Automatic annotation (TrEMBL), chains A, B:
GO process terms (BP): regulation of DNA-templated transcription
Name of the protein in question: Xylose repressor
Gene Ontology molecular functions: DNA binding
Family: Belongs to the ROK (NagC/XylR) family.
Coiled-coil ranges (or none): none
UniProt-listed InterPro entries: ATPase_NBD, ROK, Tscrpt_reg_IclR_N, WH-like_DNA-bd_sf, WH_DNA-bd_sf
Length: 416, 416
């Protein structure tokens, strides 16, 4: 249920206060600790309004007072900061081999990070819903035990997800038209917080925008480096899902191949690179598990570090194909950075120079290399799902304090 | 000087009234004629505020009262509409063969449309500035003679334009690093209205968004079909220029070619199609003028209509290459429509079926054909430059009534 960004031009009565609360929240995140007067100066809201908004945010435990400062002319001012201890956003990633759960506080600091093996590609969607529900309940219980309110939940899937949270097509899970959002909300028996389902690449680029080395950069492309090859697109500071929600199908980009072209994913996805560089491996059926990919990537890295010429040549060839695909993305989108995620990051020392050389040779203007490696490791999709929750809070979707957050935990314990 | 969209989340004191004026203006454009009460209901602004805003817009001659209506319960209400007679936005296109000037009123209705031959590819930038300045002065004189205020001016160039209006690279004009915005403003001796310089494809997609058959569609790609091949990208309702302002380099997309790949522009630009389909033509130097292209396109259309098999086969081959490039754009961006502009529109009966078939075959989901032909003919870039001016007004950049619009005309008449 990743919705489109609301039209900021549409003024609606009920929105004004929520918008102003969000403006104050963002101001404190970006500039805090700061005083009420600082907020008034930075936002242009008058001081009375700011005081009222701050009171509400304190009551909702989204802000806290951190004491006074003497470092200024006039009376000491009470300083405000985000209240990191009162709440958390949850992000989950479901894929063919494991489930990941992360939680972060309102300031983006990590609260927990769990990973458990799960054969997503061999079990039914219903069993996946059951497993994800159980994981979410354990996360919620832990969070509430720490006295935190759950701000919301995002779940990343490695495939096409409709705006209403239906999984249209998830090849690595063998899913087609699974109404995952509805089934999950039903299994959670009405959680007291918002639930969103989204594409892993889309969430990952949001994670980079908030937590990554290039956080705050407004034009980013994130390439997933797992069992599939997809792109998350951040354009002018916002996630762009396209008209139907299917943007970023980078794996379909044609690149040169013997006798014509091939889709980028067949020659330069992580799976394809693993096969190309270690072709004498005994296994060659179509689907490699992430565990198998990980073993191969480790082996490739070891051989490349040892200077094995065959490995280096094959890596170079694969990197050239990846570079051609990235050149296409850069020509169309002109991002500030293309971030290689997942297992691409492990191979970055051999991939990045080839990619950046090709971009440079073909005349793409750049002060610094455009292609970079992700620093968020495999947590990016789950972190991005949590980042999406924080984004929503900062855009005015404040948590509803009238619904006790522990209702869910109670429901989880109740017999059904 | 196409600037980035202002961050709508940034509340600034001085902005609030301008923003609200713009909200009212957009409301009347979308829903007018309508009453003050209708505006209050639609925008959520209170009636006193709406009355004050409407008074200012009437005083600025952006709105007008159109009489009363009896078609409702209660007192007759005074209806408001955009004042189409009081102002106009100017759009200019400079290219290798001609200059185009259009003007539209605040409601988007055409005020004038002129085209004159101009050898942009053989004269110096300075001479182009002189010619464009003379054209603008004639347009301004005409507009002011009708009692209209100039809302602003946009100038479309067929190349890379920096955000500050400098033409970085315009191959068909042989320009490199020409500070066109500064030179034009200087030659106009300080016009009393805003001046922007932009890329022709970017402006053209704005024209489609406001005036085209698919106006209002929030995700559009426009392909230029002139001497070059570029794309204008509208994503989530806004023009997206990329990090450096160079997005939409669709001509660089690799497509299959004998022995590997070729950039899309070398096989499927209008120039390339003209050469491929009429290869026995005597002329074959690198640059075809638009006049030469036009003759060839007419000949191709005549032969295709007559069912000439060679022409049809060659058109089909070119269409397949174009289709591969469009498939790449659609995979990355997922637009609602890809609009074939310029001379592509003339060849649409032969290009579109091939393109839409390939998108369909490769599994792009679509209720209606994605590739369509532009209905704006060759005026799209100039119309889009004018549309950009209207967009800016509706985003709060209201004309400054304290600067008499005829100051420019006076300056034009003054000796220098």
């Amino acid at each position: 249920m990743i919705g489109r960004t609301r039209d900021p031009n549409k003024a609606e009565v009920g929105d004004v206060r929520a918008t102003n609360l969000a403006v104050v929240l963002r101001c404190v995140r970006e500039q805090g600790p700061c005083s009420r007067a600082d907020i008034a100066a930075a936002t242009g809201l008058n001081k009375t309004t700011v005081s009222s908004l701050v009171s509400e945010l304190l009551r909702r435990r989204l802000l806290r007072e951190t004491g006074t400062t003497e470092n200024r002319v006039g009376r000491p001012a009470i300083m405000l900061a985000l209240d990191g201890a009162s709440s958390a956003a949850i992000g989950i990633e479901v894929n063919a081999d494991y489930l990941t759960a992360v939680a972060v506080d309102l300031a983006g600091r990590p609260v927990l990070s769990w990973r458990r093996a799960f054969p997503g590609n061999t079990v039914s969607p219903a069993r996946t819903v059951t497993a994800v529900t159980a994981l979410i309940r354990r996360v919620v219980t832990r969070i509430e035990h720490d006295g935190r309110q759950v701000l919301g939940l995002g779940v990343a899937l490695p495939g096409l997800v409709d705006p209403d949270g239906r999984a249209r097509l998830v090849p690595s899970l063998n899913w087609r038209n699974v109404d995952f959002a509805a089934e999950l909300v039903d299994a959670l028996r009405g959680p007291g917080f918002p639930v969103e389902i989204g594409n892993d690449a889309n969430y990952a680029v949001l994670a980079e925008h908030r937590f990554g080395e290039h956080a705050g950069t407004r034009d980013l492309v994130y390439l997933t480096g797992g069992t599939s090859l997809g792109a998350g697109l951040l354009v002018d500071g916002s996630l762009r899902r396209g008209h139907s929600g299917y943007s970023g199908e980078a794996g379909h980009i044609p690149v040169p191949a013997p006798g014509g072209t091939a889709p980028l994913e067949t020659v330069a996805s992580i799976t394809a690179i693993a096969r190309r560089v270690l072709p004498d491996d005994t296994r060659d059926d179509e689907h490699l598990s992430l565990a198998e990919i990980e073993l191969r990537i480790d082996e490739i890295v070891a051989r490349a570090r040892a200077g094995d010429p065959t490995t280096l040549t094959r890596l170079h060839d694969a990197a050239k194909d990846l570079a051609t695909g990235i050149f296409t993305l850069v020509s169309v989108l002109d991002p500030a950075r293309v971030i290689l995620g997942g297992y691409y990051a492990e191979l970055a020392p051999w991939l990045l120079p080839v990619v950046n050389d090709l971009l440079d040779t073909r005349g793409i203007p750049a002060d610094e290399p455009i292609a970079v490696a992700s620093t968020l490791s495999l947590d990016a999709p789950a972190l991005g799902a949590a980042a999406r929750v924080l984004d929503a809070v900062e855009q005015g979707r404040l948590p509803d304090n009238t619904t006790p957050a522990r209702a869910l935990a109670a429901a989880a314990r109740a017999p059904r």
